[in-house]
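name: query_chain
kind: protein
chains: 1
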Amino acid sequence: MKAFMDYILPFGDLDKDQIDLILSKATIRDLRREAYFSEAGKIPQEVGFILDGVFRFFYYNAKGEEITNYFIDRNTFVTDYMKFEDKAVATEYVQAVTDSKMLIFSRKSWDEIADSIVGWDRIALKIYKKCLTEAIARRSPLVSENATTRYLSFLESFPTIAHRVPLSHVASYLGITQQSLSRIRRNIL
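structure:
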């Protein structure tokens, strides 16, 4: 719980009673590798905070191929936040890539926190903006770089997960084939 509190406290002034309320609304859940936290075609119903593990956002392109859009590591929130807030159908899957442990807030619990803590909506918005800014910063360089440079950027952006996720997911995220990624890895080692 310390990691969770260390994460949210910089976003707003919360007293002990508010912190206790937030923690009382959370449940702990273990997700096995490849389990879905959220699925395309369904309205997201939960917000999670990753205590341990790695998740990915992915979708299927027109050819039916899985395209990994983003990875999320421990000590951060995971949800399709815009779809969660708008109660809209998700277009991406959120999947555990490793066995994972997380704090879960149901929609009801999240709303109760917002109804009880003045300024919680502002805190949640600041957290969302931070997550979005980090995602954009990690994805933007990938557009104009060659495959080797994209892989090196990936290693820099995701140093703790590069060797914990399947190569097929990394290759998909980088927009290259798994064979190309294997060749790049051999050449830089």
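note: The mean pLDDT is 90.
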